[in-house]
Amino acid sequence: MNYYNEIDPFAAQWLRNLIKVGLIPDGYVDERAIQDVEAEDLEKYTQCHFFAGIAGWSYALELAGWPEDQQVWTGSPPCQPFSSAGKRKGMNDDRHLWPHFFSLIRECQPPVIFGEQVATAIGDSWFDYLQADLEAEGYATGMAVLPACSVNAPHRRNRLWFVAYSIWNQQSWEKSCSRKTRRVGRKHEPVSWDRTWQSALSEFRALDDGIPRSVAGTDAARNAIVPQVAAEIIKTYMDYKDEIST
Description:
Blueprint: E1 2-5, H1 9-20, E2 27-30, E3 47-50, H2 56-64, E4 72-75, H3 98-108, E5 112-118, H4 126-136, E6 139-146, E7 159-166, H5 197-207, H6 212-223, H7 227-244
Parallel strand pairs: 1-2, 1-3, 3-4, 4-5
Antiparallel strand pairs: 5-7, 6-7
Helix pairs in contact: 2-7
């Protein structure tokens, strides 16, 4: 059972629709603000996705072949405080939600965390604070800035990708975790994922017409991560997990 935390009602319903048709693992969609989530609310879940959007991280885990029974948390905290398109208030912005995300991490101690932020956050020392917080709790961390075009998308979209793993709480990985036996893709997939970037972008552009009912859908897609890039981060961690844990 997975947990999806998403405050935007349109995106939350999108998540429920994806669950209903079997495109993402079954789970509970929580529309509360992360500030209202308590550690005990998360005890029964295997995967926890915060700022879940339209399930980009969930899809990335599947692309990478992450076993569904292995604990993991993901989160892409709001980028507005650090985006070059915003007012750049940084950590003084009310939408700087890392402290609340970290509070749950500190209490629950998930073994692995994957996350993402706009690359410009580096200039505001965002990752420095994140790294200091996590390492104080026994996590080793790493980050890389990768663009969407690194997976042949026709735009740059630089993002800071990070991984943190607990050096005290590493789970044992069964044989099912080997690259040869990982299951990638679901048996029943009503929507094709192998379309070209150009055809997908053309549909999103068509939605961006100012009609109120379309704006929410356009924004949800625009704010989503590129799952194919996230999948490469996850696969790299999976490939080198045993080496970096020693």
